[in-house]
Amino acid sequence: MKIKLLGLFLLVLSGNSQAVSYATVTEVIELKDTRTVPHQVCNNVSVPIYGRAPSRGGAIGSVVDSTFGSTQGLIGAIAGGYIGSKFGRGSGRRIATVAGTAIGSQVGDRYANKELQVIGYENQYKCDEITRTETVNSGYLVIYDYQGERLSKVVQFRPLVGSRYPVEVSIR
Predict the structure, then answer these.
(1) Residues in a beta bridge with 31
(2) d(CA 88, CA 104)
(3) Looking at the whole model, is its pTM more than 0.90?
(4) What are the pLDDT digits (tens) for 88-122?
(5) pLDDT tens-place string over residues 128-146
(6) Strand ranges of the sheet holding 164-171, from the earlier edge strand across to the other edge
(7) How many Cα atoms are found within 13 Å in the side-chain-facing hemisphere of 91?
(8) How does DSSP assign 97-133, residue by residue?
(9) Spans of all domains in the chain
(10) Is residue 129 within 8 Å of residue 144, measured between CB atoms?
């Protein structure tokens, strides 16, 4: 018995010595962090298709469209021919009328080509990237009771309140 006490006394005097004791978990607080996470949302979307609408003029409309490019081209040719016929005399008037007809047809056809209409719809698979905020567990703040003192430590896994954990005690 005297040898054991002498050994313990020498161990304490020689420097650091460690003993293992136990602390009791008294409280566990969950720690949370927020983070922004990119997320992709995909859907089928109906997208309009633009173009020139088909002629609705029947046989006459299809002849007009194939000859003048459009009904607006025919109207432009008539207006241009009328205006051209007001200039010059004789063969000059005929040349002005033909030139007015050609120019009016082109101007009317260009105007018609600017009028694109929705001629149908097409389904497309579209994805958009959005961000969402998530709350995640980042660990647990554990409060221990060790011989009347409150100690704390952050750990990754949740301990049970009332459980006992080893604590290293150093004497210097």
Answers:
(1) 139
(2) 18
(3) no
(4) 777 777 887 888 878 887 777 776 666 667 888 99
(5) 999 989 998 999 999 999 9
(6) 149-155, 117-146, 17-51, 164-171
(7) 0
(8) HHHHHHHHHHHHHHHHHH--EEEEEEEEEEEEEEEEE
(9) 2-40+128-171, 61-115
(10) no
